[in-house]
Amino acid sequence: DLQQVMVSGPNLNETSIVSGGYGGSGDGLIPTGSGRHPSHNTTPTGPGDEVARGIAGEKFDIVKKWGINTYKCTKQLLSERFGRGSRTVDLELELQIELLRETKRKYESVLQLGRALTAHLYSLLQTQHALGDAFADLSQKSPELQEEFGYNAETQKLLCKNGETLLGAVNFFVSSINTLVTKTMEDTLMTVKQYEAARLEYDAYRTDLEELSLGPRDAGMRGRLESAQATFQAHRDKYEKLRGDVAIKLKFLEENKIKVMHKQLLLFHNAVSAYFAGNQKQLEQTLQQFNIKLRPPGAEKPSWLEEQ
After folding, report:
1. 76, 142, 249, 278: which is deepest, by most CB within 10 A?
2. pTM for this structure?
3. Hey, what long-range contacts does 17-20 have (CB within 8 A, 24 or more apart)?
4. Residue 305: CB partners within 8 Å, gap ≥ 6?
5. Alpha-carbon dihedral angle through residues 258, 260, 261, 264, given to the nearest 10 degrees
6. pLDDT band, very low/low/confident/very high, at 7 (cuts 50, 70, 90)
7. How many domains are there within the chain?
8. What is the phi-psi region of residue 83: left when phi exceeds 0, alpha when psi lies from -120 to 50, beta otherwise?
9. Tell me: the pLDDT tens digits for 145-180?
10. Distance set, CA 144 to CA 28, 132, 134, 202 (Å)
11. What was the pLDDT predicted at 10?
């Protein structure tokens, strides 16, 4: 087992002041009067020096506490990994946290695929638009095939219009999934990380208190035991608070996820179904139902792909 090492620094509050001369008369020593230099240099002190020493002392204490805390947590972590130490486990909460991490990984996969679909749709629209322009140009320059080129040009224009509508719906779907994954879920996982760190500290100081309790009960040990008990209680309160925070955030996250995904999956289904069925009216109604506004034709705004 690792052993705790206590580092003690110099007492920053002690100062050494050397007298500047000798006083008195008839003692056989040379008096120090005006115009004579003292035999030793003096160290001037003032309010600024006291403040500087106080700040230095506070910083030293902070570093010392951080070092002790890091040592205890590292020792606890190694003990748990090698199976020598015990850890506090909330089975229900741990299961919910693991489920959240797995859900986040799956939603990240959906987000990646959604972005790929957006890119493909954008490329398809660019091709259809170019093809429609080519058909329209050939319709003007090929009298014998004017009608055939003409209705193909109109078809491509209609497909572009419906494609832009579908692209708007898919972009809205991707944006909502991105918010859910990178903000809502990530915020909850940040609280989870704080909770896990507090759990490790709690177990580290619990172990420390248990070890002290097994030692001799002399006067010095009683003082150390009382101090360890107070520190343990503070870390226990912090752990309990964060455990409650995580439970609440997990509950609200689940409710929010269901609400958001119910809306987004309905949007995605209706938009894709209407597009491939060629139902322009239903496609436009889908965007109106979810209050999605497309950029007007010719507006100098970023494309759906560029906004990603």
Report:
1. 76
2. 0.69
3. 17/42, 17/43, 17/45, 18/42, 18/43
4. 118, 119, 122
5. 160
6. very low
7. 1
8. left
9. 999 999 999 999 999 999 999 999 999 999 999 999
10. 134, 18, 16, 86
11. 38
Kindly report the CATH number assigned to the domain that includes residue 191.
Answer: 1.20.1270.60
Q: Phi and psi (nearest 5°) for 296?
A: -65, 155
- Per the CB < 8 A criterion, the answer to whether 185 and 253 are in contact is yes
Structural domain contains residue 3: no
Q: Which two tokens stand for residue 307?
A: 């906004």
Dihedral sign of CA atoms 35, 40, 46, 49 in order: positive
Domain limits at 187? 167-290
**Position 261 in a domain:** yes
3-state SS, the chain, equals CCCCCCCCCCCCCCCCCCCCCCCCCCCCCCCCCCCCCCCCCCCCCCHHHHHHHHHHHHHHHHHHHHHHHHHHHHHHHHHHHCCCCCCCCCHHHHHHHHHHHHHHHHHHHHHHHHHHHHHHHHHHHHHHHHHHHHHHHHHHHCHHHHHHHHHHHHHHHHHHHHHHHHHHHHHHHHHHHHHHHHHHHHHHHHHHHHHHHHHHHHHHHHHHHHHHHCCCCCHHHHHHHHHHHHHHHHHHHHHHHHHHHHHHHHHHHHHHHHHHHHHHHHHHHHHHHHHHCCCHHHHHHHHHHCCCCCCCCCCCCCCHHHHC
Using the Cα atoms of residue 284, residue 287, residue 290 and residue 291 in order, give the sign of their dihedral: negative
Residue 11 lies in a domain: no
Structure tokens at 2: 């690792």
Mean pLDDT score, 86-108: 93
> Is there a domain that residue 232 lies in?
yes
Beta-carbon contacts of 299 under 8 Å, excluding residues fewer than 6 positions away, are none
pLDDT digits (tens, 9 = 90+) for 51-82: 666 677 767 667 766 677 777 777 767 776 77
| Residue whose structure tokens are 């010719």 | 298
d(CA 200, CA 155): 65
